[in-house]
Amino acid sequence: MKHIDDDTENTSYYKFTAINIPNILTLLRILLTPLFIILLLKKMFSISLIIFVMLGITDALDGLIARYYNQRTLLGAYLDPIADKLLLTSSFIFLSALRIMPSWLTVIVVSRDIVIISGIAILTISNIKFEIKPSIASKITTFTQLVSVIITLFYPQITDAYYLKQTFYWITAVLTIFSGLHYIYMGMTLQRQKN
């Protein structure tokens, strides 16, 4: 998140064309998330893993194409985090519901997302203009969350690769908490700048 002055809209950063390859890849990620969840509930972990990895690759690919070919759009800036949250949040919720991922980790991941969404709502209600742009801490957190899901799908039995999974779960938990606190700090900074 970055503050935008009231007098100037920072629209030069974005192209106005909504339909492009990065946005199509993002929409594909959103549309394939329900299929991933269905396969997960059917305990088809191998196929779920393939789809999840494929969706993770499209996440990296759409950002790379948008930057390299200068195809950033305002729609993409909003859709991309929504697609990420939809995929990751549903992954953590359903993996913990299937009892193959610890519920305490899911609570931390979902709580952070609630904090971020609440912060965006508060800033919007307060008429504070800001740019939706993930921080480095957020990008690292997203990466560790992706890896945690991949490892869990690769080793769905609780006893399989137990120490490897626990290590990544704790790393993910710490980074998720840090990232959430970082966003709270950024939101409070924007509030102070407005006042």
Q: How would you describe this structure to a colleague?
A:
By secondary structure, the chain is mainly α. Helix content is 74%, strand content 2%. The protein contains 6 helices and 2 strands. A two-stranded antiparallel sheet has the order 1-2. Helix 1 packs parallel to helix 3 and helix 3 (74-97) packs parallel to helix 5 (136-154). The longest helix is centred in the last third of the chain and has 33 residues, at 162-194. The protein is globular and about 55 Å long. The model is unreliable at 5-14 (pLDDT under 50).
Q: How far apart are the first and last residues' alpha carbons, in Å?
A: 17 Å
Distinct helical segment count: 6
Average pLDDT: 85
Q: Radius of gyration, Cα only, in angstroms? A: 18 Å
Structural class: mainly alpha
Which strand order spans the largest sheet, edge to edge or round the barrel? 1-2
Shape: globular
Strand content: under 5%
Low-confidence stretches: 5-14
